[in-house]
Amino acid sequence: MAGKAKPEARKSRKGRSPAMRDYYAGVLSKLISARQEAGLTQREVSLKLGMAHSYLNKCESGERAIDVAELWAICKIYKKPMSFFAPDEL
């Protein structure tokens, strides 16, 4: 597979285009605001997800990427549709 370019979403955060980095920053911002709106701490959400207490802190800071299944579970906790976090446009 040498020489094949990675799809944009699979690149490291530093290797992504400015538009993709901005999009992901918007997703993280919405993740934080939805948690605060739900009146939950990072620790409470992490525990509801069955993750280590530092899990959501790393996600919200961009240190750890969120996969689709995790985002789906977070949507259920916050009572938000997936489209709230990941709009159709960059």
UniProtKB/TrEMBL annotation:
Alphabetized SUPFAM superfamilies for the sequence: lambda repressor-like DNA-binding domains (SSF47413)
Cited InterPro entries: Cro/C1-type_HTH (IPR001387), Lambda_DNA-bd_dom_sf (IPR010982)
Domain HTH cro/C1-type: 31-85
PROSITE patterns: HTH_CROC1
Gene3D superfamilies: lambda repressor-like DNA-binding domains
Chain coiled-coil ranges: none
A single MF term (Gene Ontology): DNA binding
Name of the molecule in the record: Helix-turn-helix
Species assigned in the record: Granulicella pectinivorans
